Amino acid sequence: MMKGKLLESEAISLLSVLEGTYLKKNKERRSNDFITGECDLLGKNDVIHDIKIPENIRTFFDVEDVSKNYYCQGQGYMNLWEKSKYKLTYVLLPDSVEMIERKIARLSFHLVGDDFIKAQKQLIHNNDIIKTMPIEDRIKIFEFGYDHEFINQVNERIEICRDYIKTKY
């Protein structure tokens, strides 16, 4: 999560280049009677973008579909902003020098000798690979639309939970 916070603006810039349009970080938080949230980007044509920055090259390539949690998050954002399309966007970015140094320091607590040296070299090598990859190979986008029925079910479950809490407390 730290990498995502530190590199979010770089990810937005990279996505802007790929999309051929200027995308700007959303800073507005919205709420309704059931949910609250702050989406990452509001794009053109009723599209909400959400940026995820994987920890490393392996976790980027492991992503093959939308997780249940991110699907729920996307539905919530579309509901709050009354938008019909959602793009869950994974952006693979290299670590900064400071991030690499921190990762190497953490490795030193777990590995010694040749194992530490090999892991250190692999970490630096993988980071260098990311830097040479074309933009289109460093971004994965999963699109889906607003599901009114899903939101109704979520709202119904929230009401059931509220009723339960009232009877218990």
Number of strands: 6
From the helix content, strand content and strand pairing, which structural class follows? alpha+beta
Q: Widest sheet: strand order?
A: 3-4-5-6
Largest sheet report: 4 strands, mixed
Globular, elongated, flat, extended or rod-shaped: what is the shape? Answer: globular
Helix content: 55-70%
* Uncertain residue ranges: none
Cα separation of the termini: 35 Å
Encode the helix/strand succession as letters: HEEEEHHEHHEH
Rg for CA atoms: 20 Å
Overall average residue pLDDT: 93
Q: Given the structure, what is the number of helices?
A: 6
- The portion of residues forming beta strands comes to 15-25%
Topology, element by element:
Blueprint: H1 2-19, E1 30-31, E2 36-37, E3 41-42, E4 47-52, H2 57-62, H3 68-81, E5 85-91, H4 97-110, H5 113-132, E6 139-145, H6 148-168
Parallel strand pairs: 4-5
Antiparallel strand pairs: 1-2, 3-4, 5-6
